[in-house]
Amino acid sequence: QQGILQELIAKGARLAKPGEFTQRAFLNGKMDLSQAEAVADLIASNSAAAHRMALTQMRGGFSSELSKLRTQLLDFASLIELELDFSEEDVEFADRTQLKDLARNVESVIRRLAESFKYGNALKNGIPVALVGETNVGKSTLLNVLLNDDKAIVSDVHGTTRDVIEDSVVVNGVEFRFIDTAGIRNTTDTVEKLGIERTFKKIEQAAIVLWLVDGTQATEHIEWLTERITKLAAGKIILVFNKTDKISDEELEILNQLFEQFEAERVYISAKKKQNIEVLENALLKAAQLPEINQSDVIVSNIRHYEALEKAHAAIERVMDGLESGLTNDLVALDIRDCMSHLGEITGQISNDEILGNIFGKFCIGK
User: Is 111 exposed, middle or buried (0-12, 13-18, 19+ CB in 10 A)?
Assistant: First the structure.
């Protein structure tokens, strides 16, 4: 194979640059910039949900939404600017009520697309889940069960996991990015202390916190747990009681009653025996609070698109304010054009070589 390549290069051919084929398709008008970016997202997708989202964008679902918006804004701007041409004759080509309705409709669509980024980003990059708790409660064992792997160190020695371990698992087509952290406890070990500090930073960054508790010792540590868990947002905590295969039904009922005070989902498992793991996975899906997403739904997952939509939204809000306050047509027209420009940045109608180089440079060779 290398010999064939060398022969072709000797005859004047060259290796394709990263993303060159997709870039040519964009430059030749075969796809717009958002579709080209979706090609890279499709290749990099790790879950069925991320795959569907990228496929919808690559097939032009997002582009179609933006095209409709730009057409509406172009009609809007044309009417406003036409009045400017006939300003001396005091002619009104557009009913102000209709213009306000049009602006509100455009604002609504842009806002919906921008708000979808919260879910799109989670589906594309994985929902961050911090796996925390005291030392030796079975965090590494649980992570290995979820990942079907032996990446985390499993040992009976307290404080064995001294750093943050990250990996992903897909549950029902949704990717969760698990972060196994150093066990939380009072310690004099400098290295272990650093690991615990990183644990608290990861808790702040996580969308969901799996707080693992040793079910055989939970009643003894109720005060310690209360002090730490109440500091966290209740909506993102799942209390996971491990080693429940070692306690009786009566003890399980006592546990349930003791921890009713916490506004958090409670799950009872045995990581070692792989019991109730599916219940835990369902609790994760519930905590993720992802909406029902259809094949045709347009979900924004690219930070560049989100930032452009935010700027477009600010511009259309200025248009709405201008229409309400009776701002002159020339200033309203400027804001309409500004909104169109930001939407055009997404599809590549408004672009520069630096942006294009950055986007296509991230592709793998051959695409």
Answer: middle
Per the CB < 8 A criterion, the answer to whether 63 and 32 are in contact is yes
Q: Which residue has the higher pLDDT, 179 or 100?
A: 100
CA terminus-to-terminus distance, the chain = 19
Homologous superfamily of 2-116+298-360 = tRNA modification GTPase MnmE domain 2 (1.20.120.430)
Each residue's pLDDT tens digit, 261-274: 777 788 999 988 99
Identify the three-state secondary structure at position 181. coil
Helical packing angle, 20-27 and 33-44, nearest 10°: 160
Beta strands in 142-264 (DSSP E): 165-171, 174-180, 208-214, 237-242
Exposed, middle or buried by CB within 10 Å (0-12, 13-18, 19+), for 294? exposed
State the span(s) of the chain assigned CATH 3.40.50.300: 121-288
